[in-house]
Design goal:
This protein folds into two domains: about 10-135, no CATH class; about 145-320, Porin. About 10% of the residues lie in helices and about 55% in strands. It contains five helices and 18 strands. The longest helix is centred in the N-terminal third of the chain and has 8 residues, at about 10-15. The protein is flat, with a radius of gyration of 27 Å.
Length: about 325
């Protein structure tokens, strides 16, 4: 028995987007790239570029180039100590092309198999000479002597493990803030002094059989040494924190419970540079030594996934 197909036009329209390619839709034949170099290095030419060198003379770094997408490598010619040398940037599949895996189960990849829009070159490039070898990084280093202001907000959640009157309280929340100052004593190393607060407010719960409210929060200050390796920033140091737990019964006949844990422990962080001044990172601060009792305490911690902005306040070139 054959079932009649109703509304074949609607069915065709509904499945047609499966055969679109995200690279074709979102990518243009041209791509914008940014290039910075050390003071002793000069960009002579960028092949596949539609921007003339004369239009870039007065442009501050990083210089912007519009280049044609291609499966072929992008050749950049630089001049170092009056000697010209070529640098090769290899193309790779763009995120828009890989998005087909989620959007149409990879069907769009077949559509764009031979389309140059599937490719892209590294968009941000910094070239420097190290021991006669030209190395490429995504971002230029921060100059020695630079002071920065840092500002951080939780990206997804904060997580707490806090000692209470009866065991540990494990909870999470979305609200917090961290600010600080960073001083670069080397181009890839800096000291950071930060203070912050976080809470699990709105992450609390009411039990059906017992009417009470639990809440946890943290106040902290940390001092860390930080090192940049490529696009990754690693930090380690020490923190002093107050992890507070409160149980509110909401009843005048019962006394609320409150525990303040004040102590110190290691401060650890790892950040990935998503932009020149923006990062995404994870911050881990276990509280191991209790200041009040002067003894090692049961394990407690504050953990956060966050966005961080690091904005220069003073650079060596701007000092008077």
């Amino acid at each position: 028995m054959r079932l009649p197909i109703k509304n074949p036009t609607k069915i065709l329209i509904s499945i047609l987007p499966l055969f679109y390619s995200c690279a074709t839709v979102f990518n243009t034949p041209m791509q914008k790239i940014f290039i910075e170099t050390d003071k002793n290095t000069k960009i002579i030419s960028v092949n596949k570029s539609v921007s003339s060198d004369s239009s870039l003379v007065s442009q501050p770094p990083p210089k912007t180039y519009n280049v044609r997408r291609s499966i072929e490598p992008l050749i950049i010619t630089v001049e170092i100590d009056s000697t010209q040398r070529p640098i090769t940037l290899q193309p790779k599949n763009s995120p828009e092309y890989l998005l087909n895996i989620l959007y149409n189960f990879g069907i769009g990849m077949l559509v764009d198999k031979n389309n140059v829009r599937r490719y892209e070159y590294p968009s941000r490039n910094y070239f420097t000479m190290t021991d006669t070898v030209i190395k490429r990084y995504r971002f230029s280093p921060t100059e020695k002597g630079t002071t920065c202001f840092s500002f951080s907000l939780p990206l997804m959640l904060n997580h707490f493990t806090i000692k209470t009157t009866n065991g540990n309280y494990n909870t999470g929340g979305m609200y917090g803030i961290k600010t600080g100052l960073d001083y670069f004593y080397k181009r890839n190393k800096y000291l950071s002094l930060s203070t912050g607060a976080a809470t699990d407010i709105f992450g609390e719960y009411w039990l059906s059989d017992t009417s009470y409210l639990e809440q946890g929060d943290a106040l902290f200050a940390s001092l860390k040494m930080n090192r940049l390796i490529g696009s990754i920033d690693f930090g380690y140091g020490i923190h002093i924190s107050q992890l507070r737990w409160k149980k509110d019964f909401g009843d005048t006949t019962k006394t609320d419970l409150l525990v303040r844990n004040v102590g110190v422990g290691p401060a650890l962080s790892a950040e990935y540079h998503t932009g020149k001044y923006c990062r995404i990172g994870i911050y881990y601060q276990p509280l191991l030594y209790d200041i009040k009792s002067m003894t090692f305490t049961n394990y407690q911690h504050y953990l956060s996934f966050a966005l961080l902005w690091q904005l220069p306040l003073r650079t060596p070139g701007k000092q008077r």
